[in-house]
Amino acid sequence: MNLGINGTVTPRIGFAVAAAAGLLLLVGCGEGKSAGTPAPGTSPTSSAATASTSTGPDQPTAFDPCTALTPQFLSQHRWDAKPPEPKQDSASGIAWKGCRYVAKAGYGFVIETTNTTLPQVRDKFPAAVEVPAGTRKAVRYEARPDVPGGCSINIEMRSGSLYVLTNVPQTQASKSLPACDAATEIAQAVAPLLPAGS
Predict the structure, then answer these.
(1) Of the candidates 120, 118, 123, 78, the residue with the CA atom closest to the CA atom of residue 101
(2) What would the pLDDT profile of 69-88 be if each residue is shown by its tens digit?
């Protein structure tokens, strides 16, 4: 804290900016999912529906990003500004399960398994482009092109895909970081961790 005019206590501007950026990361990371995204501010479906969707045969279970991305792996990529935060959503028969992460570069991202397939993504986002992700097919798209800072990639899996979403806050410090470049870097680093046959 600093003493302001007339000796009053005022918070440091840097802390306020960091807190605002952190809030944007937490709020924005859930937006822009592929097919069947819950609207911002709404709750996921009931726990019974979540359980039946997330444990059904169509939900990829061979990969858990929350455990596969080890602390060493996160540190190596500088994606360890905060501990991973588990996340699970479902809506309209689509399920997502994984973790939220915060990179030291100041952006947030989500990595989740989903039962959304690449054909479903292409149907919903015709402008999606193919990107390299190891030996797997992957598509990149901006689910909300009207909102700068977000980019999504789905990497093909047997029963759906691995979903990567970046959320780069449009602050002076991070607005020069292209969200889709960050998403592509993440997808290329994580795809080799997917088990063979998954």
Answers:
(1) 78
(2) 999 999 999 999 999 999 99
What's the pLDDT at 197? 86
What gap in Å lies between CA 99 and CA 147, rounded to an integer?
22
Q: Phi, psi (5° rounding) for residue 42?
A: -100, 160
Instruction: Specify the residue for token string 């607005």.
Output: 175
Q: What is the pLDDT of residue 192?
A: 96
For residue 6, give the 3-state DSSP assignment.
helix
pLDDT digits (tens, 9 = 90+) for 5-54: 444 443 333 333 333 333 333 334 444 444 433 333 333 333 333 333 33
Is the Cβ–Cβ distance between 163 and 33 less than 8 Å? yes
Distance CA(169)–CA(150), nearest Å, equals: 9
**Strand order across the beta sheet in which 138-141 lies:** 82-91, 94-102, 108-114, 160-167, 150-157, 138-141, 129-130
Count of all residues that appear for the chain in the document: 198
